[in-house]
Amino acid sequence: MKPETWTPHVTVAAIVECDGRFLVVEEQTVDGLRLNQPAGHLEAGETLLEAVSRETLEETAHPFTPEALVGMYMTHVVRPGREGVTYLRFTYCGKNGEQQADRALDPDIVRTLWMGAEELRACPERHRTPLVMQCIDDYLAGRRFPLDFVHTHSVGPKWPMSGQ
């Protein structure tokens, strides 16, 4: 029997600030209703920038243009009765476009909200993960890395994919 390969989940998140308030989503999770930045998984063939723009649009109906990388985060989540999962999260800040009112949100998204940092800080039990506030705090501390800090190398069809 072949041993299972451990693979971390790569996710992206968007920080959108307007007049001191942050765009967050209220979403249905296995742990109940939680707050999070617009966020989701990197899909095959996407760059991180494409993923964060797509996820933000799908979850908020706001187009998103990343301007800087706020940080890269790793967290390991273990829930009772389930195997643990490791997430690598790339959080970007940027500008949102006008909300597309006729666009349906992802099925797990209940609504979008604009909340101040202190409002978010006051309800940590509602956060999807501790990364929600960590990313806001890093953003408020001025952490910014250029978009090309993470290099995306396109792999051609002849490049060997195993043993990289």
TrEMBL record:
Q: Which cofactor does it need?
A: Mg(2+)
PROSITE patterns (UniProt xref): NUDIX
Q: Does the keyword Magnesium apply?
A: yes
Which residue range or ranges hold the Nudix hydrolase domain? 5-137
Superkingdom as given in the UniProt entry: Bacteria
Q: Which SUPFAM superfamilies match?
A: Nudix (SSF55811)
MF terms from GO for this chain are: nucleoside diphosphate phosphatase activity; ribonucleoside triphosphate phosphatase activity; thiamine diphosphate phosphatase activity
Instruction: Give EC number(s), comma-separated.
Output: 3.6.1.-
**Which controlled-vocabulary keywords does the entry list?**
Hydrolase, Magnesium
What the entry lists under InterPro entries is as follows: NUDIX_hydrolase-like_dom_sf, NUDIX_hydrolase_dom, NudJ
What is its quaternary makeup? Monomer.
The family line of this record is: Belongs to the Nudix hydrolase family. NudJ subfamily.
| Stored PANTHER family | NUDIX HYDROLASE 23 (PTHR43222), PHOSPHATASE NUDJ (PTHR43222:SF11)
Identification of the protein by name: Phosphatase NudJ
Gene this protein is translated from: nudJ
